[in-house]
């Protein structure tokens, strides 16, 4: 499911409200209590103590709960929870939880409620897929658009060095132009410790056409660089500066229809399910607590 675009404004309203409010938000009149989010945070931290109880975590959980509530309401309206398939899946899961002893855990009630919500979500997704199935003509049309878009274009494997100031970024650029190894320059100037450990160059290649759409400044900086090239100027992002190095550049190999059709079909179906959920959210009466 893609991240929806309606919830963030709601969460800003929640963040500005009283943290002691019992009801965080109502969804079509159904309240989501802070106790629900408290219990989910507790369950998550019980599984992994490294996860911190942060406002960001609570916002994400609240967003998930709003979406699950809207979808669950629609699934029940459609009586999907009354289907034999749904009831069987619920019974089997509960039997497995009882048999394994999971049902005796302190946080089981919270985890089970989340599971039920997820199962209702799956039932709703299956319903939408059945009502609005992807046809082969849809897949072929999407493949034609995809292959035309990428045909004759290239992709790059980029290394990035993130520095704390423009002066260090300029020094990194000069060092790379002087043919010093990317790893040595990375280790000397980067403030990203994780990148240092990983080597700074992901295995993945990025299509230039994707960069052109999603990150125009980066596209403009690297589009004409050959293998071994480095951006002429650092790219500022907030308080840090990025230096990009083209580790490799190659023509894009467009997969055949047979190779791509299953992935395209899944993507199209997922997009239809996501659009349906977005429609539910747009129609829903979602009110943050005052």
How is the topology of this model organized?
Blueprint: H1 7-16, E1 23-27, E2 30-33, H2 34-47, H3 55-77, H4 84-100, H5 108-131, H6 136-150, E3 154-163, H7 166-177, H8 182-189, H9 193-198, E4 206-207, H10 208-214, H11 216-222, E5 235-237, E6 240-251, H12 257-283, E7 286-288
Antiparallel strand pairs: 1-2, 1-7, 3-4, 3-6, 5-6
Question: Can you give a write-up of this model?
Answer:
- It is a single chain.
- The longest helix has 27 residues, at 257-283.
- The chain is built from twelve helices and seven strands.
- The strands form two sheets. The protein has a four-stranded antiparallel β-sheet, sandwiched between helices.
- Helix content is 59%, strand content 13%.
- The chain has 290 residues and is of the alpha+beta class.
């Amino acid at each position: 499911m893609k991240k929806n675009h309606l919830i963030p404004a709601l969460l800003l309203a929640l963040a500005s409200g009283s943290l002691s409010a019992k009801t965080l938000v109502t969804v079509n009149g159904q309240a989501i209590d802070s106790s629900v989010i408290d219990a989910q945070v507790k369950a998550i931290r019980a599984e992994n103590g490294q996860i911190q109880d942060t406002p960001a975590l609570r916002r994400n959980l609240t967003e998930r709960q709003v979406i699950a509530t809207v979808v669950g309401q629609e699934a029940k309206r459609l009586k999907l929870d009354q289907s034999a398939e749904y009831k069987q899946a619920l019974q089997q899961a509960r039997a497995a939880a009882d048999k394994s002893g999971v049902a005796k855990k302190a946080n089981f009630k919270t985890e089970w409620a989340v599971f039920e919500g997820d199962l209702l979500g799956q039932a709703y997704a299956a319903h939408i897929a059945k009502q609005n199935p992807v046809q082969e003509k849809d897949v072929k049309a999407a493949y034609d658009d995809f292959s035309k878009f990428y045909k004759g274009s290239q992709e790059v494997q980029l290394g990035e060095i993130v520095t704390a100031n423009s002066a260090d970024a300029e020094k990194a650029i000069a060092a790379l132009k002087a043919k010093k190894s990317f790893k040595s320059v990375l280790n000397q100037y980067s403030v990203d410790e994780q990148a240092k450990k990983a080597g700074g160059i992901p295995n993945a290649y990025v299509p230039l056409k994707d960069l052109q759409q999603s990150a125009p400044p980066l596209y403009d900086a690297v589009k004409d660089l050959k293998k071994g090239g480095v951006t002429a100027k650092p790219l500022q992002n907030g308080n840090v500066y990025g230096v990009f190095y083209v580790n490799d550049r190659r023509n894009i190999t467009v997969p055949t229809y047979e190779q791509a059709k299953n992935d395209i079909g899944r993507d199209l179906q997922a997009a239809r399910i996501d659009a349906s959920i977005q429609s539910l959210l747009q129609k829903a009466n979602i009110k943050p607590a005052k």
